[in-house]
Every structure is written in structure tokens, then in C-alpha cells.
């Protein structure tokens, strides 16, 4: 669907180039969306995150986001990678909000695991194993039930701050409200194909204005649990444009795949 913010392999390359150029002060035209894979995703309507506020956030060199799942594994979206197997082409940047910071940790990948159900029944998730463990950076635990799929979530990323805009040098954050499956499906277009068991929606349905966007794909949707600890409930997946009214963001429902993710992490 034109206008969706999926990141295809081609779009990954375009977004990655845009990220490098825009953070250096250059403007790069956005790549045209292509069904079923089109634009990536970023935070619109947000503000800069404070240093150390979300330490487990990861920027990936193909133009996606992610979260540190273990000291050596990053959780991202399946549509950000092409296959399961050895892969040393990805660089993960961690530990900073400013991608130009001299304190940034950069680690190359060693292998990738892509959800085998992504192209069939959903499951837009993937694991990137790093060449070595990253010490001193907290990980982001996953929700194992859907009990937290309500209320207000936080989103974050280095993606564009407006639809088809430039990638960001500084990490941005915003809060978005939960949207129930029935309401999300009623927004028409591709939302009628929502997979309730595999996806959840969040955003200001009537007004838009706040959303993930190009370059945020693979990043986490998270909130504090009952004990006050940050927990990941979603993975930025797709949507119709960015921050449009009646076009909420769609996220992989992490609790549905938490056991599969854990099993894959053991063997990657």
C-alpha cells in the first residue's frame, strides 16, 4: 500500500544513506514507497530524549532502530533484514542519544535471525547478534503477556521528524495511546488486514500528530510495568504515512512472540 512505512531492503539502503547524510547536515530525498514494503518509520511530534534516558536504544546502519535484548543481541523488525544467516554487514550504534558523540559504542553484527512466520501469519521481528557483548548498557525486557497492552506507550528513534523528512542526529521520544484492534481495523486501507494476534496499534486516531516514521522501524514500543520497570510491548512495524489522522502506527505484538524470540536467541 503506497504510503505505508515498511522498510524494504531497497528502502533500508536509502534510509541508511539518508541517515548518514542528514546527520552530517545534508538533505536526502525520501525514497518512493513500494507495496508491500514502503517507507520506514521515525518519531513525529516528539522531543529529544535525555542522555541515558533509554540506554537500550540501538541505531542500525541499514536505517532501522532496535533495542538491546541481551548483551549481544539486538531485537529489531523482520522487514529490516533480508534473511537468516551469517551477516557482518550491520553496525549497531549504542549508548548515546547523539549519533555523533565520541562516547558511542559501535559494534558489527555476526549473524541475523529473521522470524520464519513474518511472510505468512505475521511476526515482524528479527534478532541481530553482535560480534561481541556490550558491557554496561541495560537491556530491555519483553512483555510475556498482553496485560500491558493498554493505556499510554512510549516510542523513540532517530527516524524522520516529519513524513518523508530527514533522519535525526539526536534520539527523539513521544507518548502514544493504545488503539484497540476493532478501532484500528475500522480506519480502512491496509488497516482492515490487521492481524490481531500478531499486531497492536497506537496513536491519536482522530487527530494524528504523534507517531513513528521513516527510520524508526524495528525500534521498541514500551512502557513501565507495575513495578516501574521499562518493558517492551511492541516493535515498530508499519503504518499509512506518518502521524496522519485515522492512520495509527502498527507494532508487532511482542507478548505473542516472546517465547519464540527467547528460543531463537538461544540458538542464533
TrEMBL record:
What name has this protein been given in UniProt? Answer: Serine protease
Which keywords does this Swiss-Prot/TrEMBL entry list?
A: Disulfide bond, Hydrolase, Protease, Serine protease, Signal
Domain Peptidase S1 stretches: 43-266
Question: What molecular function does GO assign, one term?
Answer: peptidase activity
Gene3D superfamilies given in the database record = Trypsin-like serine proteases
Q: Work out whether the entry's keyword set contains Disulfide bond.
A: yes
Which PANTHER family would you find in this protein's record?
ACROSIN-RELATED, HYALIN
**Which positions make up the signal peptide?**
1-27
Q: Name one GO biological process term.
A: proteolysis
* PROSITE patterns (alphabetical): TRYPSIN_DOM (PS50240), TRYPSIN_HIS (PS00134), TRYPSIN_SER (PS00135)
Q: Which Pfam families match?
A: Trypsin
- Say which domain of life the source belongs to: Bacteria
Amino acid at each position: 500500500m503506497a504510503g505505508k512505512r515498511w522498510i524494504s531492503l531497497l528502502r533500508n539502503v536509502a534510509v541508511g544513506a539518508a541517515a548518514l547524510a542528514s546527520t552530517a547536515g545534508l538533505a536526502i530525498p525520501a525514497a518512493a514507497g513500494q507495496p508491500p514494503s514502503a517507507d520506514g518509520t521515525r518519531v513525529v511530534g516528539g522531543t529529544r530524549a535525555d542522555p541515558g534516558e533509554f540506554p537500550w536504544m540501538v541505531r542500525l546502519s541499514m536505517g532501522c532502530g532496535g533495542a538491546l535484548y541481551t548483551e549481544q543481541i539486538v531485537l529489531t523488525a523482520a522487514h529490516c533484514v533480508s534473511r537468516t544467516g551469517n551477516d557482518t554487514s550491520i553496525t549497531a550504534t549504542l549508548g548515546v542519544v547523539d549519533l555523533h558523540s565520541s562516547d558511542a559504542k559501535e559494534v558489527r553484527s555476526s549473524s541475523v535471525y529473521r522470524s520464519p512466520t513474518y511472510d505468512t501469519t505475521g511476526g515482524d521481528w528479527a534478532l541481530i547478534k553482535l560480534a561481541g557483548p556490550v558491557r554496561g548498557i541495560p537491556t530491555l525486557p519483553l512483555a510475556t503477556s498482553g496485560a500491558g497492552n493498554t493505556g499510554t506507550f512510549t516510542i523513540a528513534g532517530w527516524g524522520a521528524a516529519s513524513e518523508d523528512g530527514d533522519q535525526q542526529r539526536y534520539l527523539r521520544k513521544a507518548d502514544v495511546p493504545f488503539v484497540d484492534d476493532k478501532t484500528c481495523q475500522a480506519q480502512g486501507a491496509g488497516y482492515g488486514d490487521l492481524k490481531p494476534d500478531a499486531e497492536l496499534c497506537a496513536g491519536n486516531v482522530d487527530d494524528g500528530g504523534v507517531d513513528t516514521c521513516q527510520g524508526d522501524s524495528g525500534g521498541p514500543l514500551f512502557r513501565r510495568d507495575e513495578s516501574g520497570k521499562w518493558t517492551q510491548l511492541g516493535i515498530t512495524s508499519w503504518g499509512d504515512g506518518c502521524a496522519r489522522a485515522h492512520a495509527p502506527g502498527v507494532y508487532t505484538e511482542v507478548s505473542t512472540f516472546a517465547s519464540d524470540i527467547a528460543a531463537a536467541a538461544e540458538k542464533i
